[in-house]
Structure formats: C-alpha cells, structure tokens
Design brief:
Layout: H1 3-25, H2 28-48, H3 50-54, H4 59-69, H5 76-92, H6 95-122, H7 128-138, H8 141-161, H9 167-180, H10 184-198, H11 203-222
Helix pairs in contact: 1-5, 1-6, 2-6, 4-10, 5-10, 6-7, 6-8, 8-11, 9-10
C-alpha cells in the first residue's frame, strides 16, 4: 500500500471515529452508558492481562493497549491533531509509520461503533450477564473477529516500526516542536506506543498473547459458555 492509499484510508476511518464520538457525545444518556461500558471493558481486560501489566518488561505495552488503543480516554484532541497535520504526515513520515497510525485509527473507528451499539443496548447500569448477552446481540461474530484482527495488525505494525533506525530519535526531536504546534496529544500517543514496544525483547510474543486470549474469550462468548472470561 502506497502513501496515497494509506492517507485515504486514514482520512476515512478518522472521520468515521469522529462521527461516532460526536453521536455519543450529543446524547447525555448514551455518553454516560458509553463511559460505564468502557470502564467495565477496561477492568475486564486488566484482569485478563494482569500478568502482562505486572511484568516490568510488558507493563508499558499492556497499558498502551488498555489506555491508548482501547480505553476510557477521550481521543477528541488526538483526532483533531491528526486531521490537522495529515498533509505534513504524508510528506514527512515513512509509509510504515503512517500504516501504524492508520491501523490504530481503523481499530478505533470500529470499536467506537461497536461500543455505541453496546451502550445503547445496555444503558448505564448493567451486570456481567447483561454485557455478555449484548455482546452477541448487537454485533456479528465477523465484526468481533475483525476487531481482534485490527488489534493484531496494530501490534504487528508497532513491532515493525521499532526496528526502523532513527525513528526513536526522530520522535524525541519532535517533542518540543509538537508541543509548540499544539500537537502534544498526537506526539504523546506515538511516543508511548514506540517506547513501550521498544523496551520488550519479544514484542511479537506479547501481541500473540493478547490476540490468543481475546480470541479465546470471543470463542467462549459465541459458544455461550457460562464463564466466558475465565481462561484458567
């Protein structure tokens, strides 16, 4: 995929994610339900991947996945940063770095759509059994599998990105200019992801572990197992 194709994909998915966030934000009831859903999911993932969060080597990467790729943070400013500098990104960044950002935004757009549907179905107050029922009700298995495939793709892209010479130094040099340009959120996002994956000796194993566990939970959900989050 060339730069033009990656940028077109990034623009499409960034717009989709921003629309989903705006739709959720315009309805106070949906916004509260969405926040409750995200809190539930973040807490669940923290339990599922507790060992990765406890390890000095994988903690930052696990936190990046939970907070920056699938967490409760408000990504409105990050999206605005990206939208504003897309022409500059296309001109200055290598295709591999653009692909990593595009993968993350595509995952974000899909997650936003699925979460809004879940939030509308569940409301602000729900229990685990309600969540499990809504998980199967509001989306197809194919959509859920696509979400995990994007998680895998983002992880693999980060694994490849950290192998490129000078990327780390370039990010470090960009810190002050990014702050002066009002792009702190975007720079911080990129820097956290790069730094977290750079410190791991086997980042591909980390990604494989995340994907394996989330796939097992998905399988349990659709097999209607009574305790789908129990992987013991």
């Amino acid at each position: 995929m060339n730069k033009h194709e990656v940028i077109a994909r990034l623009r499409r998915d960034l717009h989709a994610a921003m629309v989903e966030r705006q739709l959720a934000a315009t309805d106070a009831t949906t916004a509260k339900a969405r926040a409750a859903l995200r809190s539930f999911q973040s807490a669940r993932m923290a339990v599922t991947h507790a060992d990765l969060l406890a390890s000095d080597e994988t903690r930052d990467a696990a936190q990046f996945f939970l907070d920056d790729l699938y967490g409760t943070h408000d990504f409105t400013q990050r999206d605005a940063d990206i939208e504003r500098i897309i022409p500059m990104m296309e001109s200055l960044m290598p295709v591999s770095a653009l692909q990593t950002i595009a993968e993350a935004i595509e995952l974000d757009a899909l997650s936003e759509a699925l979460d809004r549907a879940m939030a509308v179905s569940l409301g602000e107050q729900f229990i685990e059994a309600d969540y499990i029922a809504a998980y199967r009700k509001v989306a197809s298995r194919t959509e859920r599998e696509s979400q995990i495939a994007h998680i895998q793709s983002v992880g693999r892209s980060l694994c490849e990105l950290v192998r490129i010479p000078l990327i780390g130094g370039t990010l470090a040099m960009m810190r002050v200019p990014a702050m002066l340009a009002g792009l702190h959120e975007l720079h911080s996002f990129l820097n956290r992801g790069f730094g977290a994956f750079k410190k791991m000796r086997k980042p591909k194993d980390f990604v494989a572990t995340i994907v394996m566990r989330e796939t097992a939970i998905l399988d349990n959900m659709y097999a209607q197992k009574p305790q789908p989050f129990d992987l013991g």
